[in-house]
Amino acid sequence: MKIPTAACARLPVDVGAFQTTVFDAYDGKEHVALTMGELADGPPALVRIHSECFTGDVLGSHRCDCGEQLAESMRRIAREGRGAVLYLRQEGRGIGLAEKLRAYQLQDLGFDTVDANIELGHAADARDYGVAASILRDLGVHALQLMTNNPAKVAALTRLGIEVVARVPLVIPPRPENREYLNAKARRMGHLLDSPDVAETKAQIVVPAAKVPSDRSEPLFDLLSRVSARRDRPFVTLSYAQSLDGSSAALGNRPLAISGGASRCFTHRLRAAHDAILVGIGTILADDPRLTVREAHGVDPQPVIVDSRLRFPLDARLLTHPTRKVWIATTPLANPSRMRRLESLGAELLVVPVDTMERVDLSALLALLRARGVRNLMIEGGGRVLTQVVDQRLFDLLVLTVAPMMVGGTPAFAPHQSLRNREHTRIDRPNYLQVGDDLVIWGAPQVPGATGEGARDA
């Protein structure tokens, strides 16, 4: 969608002369593009997508690094003689100036920048980059080098059809007044800050040691911080909990708290290490989960629900998720009026081709999630989804929590097609971790046809 321009003018500043264009965007705000040189031709240009920060950009506040990032990005573009700064009018990560100042008050009381926004009833990050993608296309920019420390911004532009050929770090040395703010952005929001003062928090998720022993679990989380998406789908972690007798729920699929408190914290930490979390509609109907990371520090993953016939309840708690819009994967067989109703309640519907049993084709869904920028995906259940994922070998890592209890309830898995074919899925060199009273077993599935100790034991 082309965005009309309201005004254009040459703007000479200390570092050089920029062409300034004000856009009348569909969100009712006046967004600004500062451009230098010819952008439509030549190699991908340097681009900074900068969200308005009155306190930092105008007043020079030391509580953040925004003003310095803006100035540095303009200096770099001037040195290149070519590039653009998009100045988006979404103050305070989208909550507005007054609410940002209220968040500052909470930060002075001990809240970090993420929890302060959430305490005020806002998302941790409410920014929308759709208008940025539209402006870039209007400027003839379809591929760029993005100056940012925020991988989520790269993923957002990619989902919107803008090719990010390189992420160019824009790290500003911390000040005493903003060191905790920068640490929180790295720890809670995944910002990549390579400055020595904050490097120790890069891509980490900190959980109180009293809840999750870090000495034994760190290899798992270190692995997850280094995984890369496949070409055809995200890196997939299969994670679920069961009792000693293999039950995941009480009889009749009634909810049952299998994991202990420490294991729940561990699972929430695991969720925070993934871009998205996927469950089947049966889990929603049985448990009505929020799929957040409320018992650990970190960013909520994107919730994805597999619902072939669109049975998603209109009062499900996921429709009021505190930070994300739920994605519901369904099929062309779903009721169109039901789809419209769920969209009106805030859900985003992903229509996916059907498999041979007229269910959501999981391979097609994973490919779609990869195209939307999901780098790694955690699948928590339920039984039918778990079974399909294992039967089709669509996972790269298993994290199984076993609770020391006998339930006699609903099995975690439906009957396996692979078992009927006498093919077994074995975990190669499994790791064992005690979390509270529960046992966590994790490892990668053995490649079919591979030889080794696991193969000899089979």
Automatic annotation (TrEMBL):
Q: Per the UniProt record, which EC number(s) apply here?
A: 3.5.4.25
Tell me where in this chain the GTP cyclohydrolase II domain is found. 9-169
Task: Check the record and name the CDD domains matching this protein.
Answer: GTP_cyclohydro2
Catalyses: GTP + 4 H2O = 2,5-diamino-6-hydroxy-4-(5-phosphoribosylamino)-pyrimidine + formate + 2 phosphate + 3 H(+)
Is the GTP-binding keyword given for this protein? Answer: yes
Q: Which UniProt keywords apply?
A: GTP-binding, Hydrolase, Metal-binding, Nucleotide-binding, Riboflavin biosynthesis, Zinc
Cofactor names from the entry are: Zn(2+)
The protein's matches in Gene3D superfamilies, at most eight in alphabetical order, are given as: Dihydrofolate Reductase, subunit A, GTP cyclohydrolase II
Sequence ranges assigned to domain Bacterial bifunctional deaminase-reductase C-terminal in this UniProt record: 234-437
Active-site residues (renumbered): D125, R127
Database matches in Pfam families: GTP_cyclohydro2, RibD_C
Q: How is the cofactor bound?
A: Binds 1 zinc ion per subunit.
Residues binding Zn(2+) are C53, C64, C66
In terms of InterPro entries, this protein maps to:
DHFR-like_dom_sf, GTP_cyclohydro_II, RibA, RibA-like_sf, RibD_C, RibDG_C
Binding residues for GTP: R48, I49, H50, S51, E52, Q69, E91, G92, R93, T113, T148, K153
Q: Which GO terms describe its molecular function?
A: GTP cyclohydrolase II activity
Pathway, per record = Cofactor biosynthesis; riboflavin biosynthesis; 5-amino-6-(D-ribitylamino)uracil from GTP: step 1/4
Q: What does this protein do?
A: Catalyzes the conversion of GTP to 2,5-diamino-6-ribosylamino-4(3H)-pyrimidinone 5'-phosphate (DARP), formate and pyrophosphate.
Provide the family line. Answer: Belongs to the GTP cyclohydrolase II family.
> Under which name does UniProt file this protein?
GTP cyclohydrolase-2
Question: What is the primary gene name for this protein?
Answer: ribA
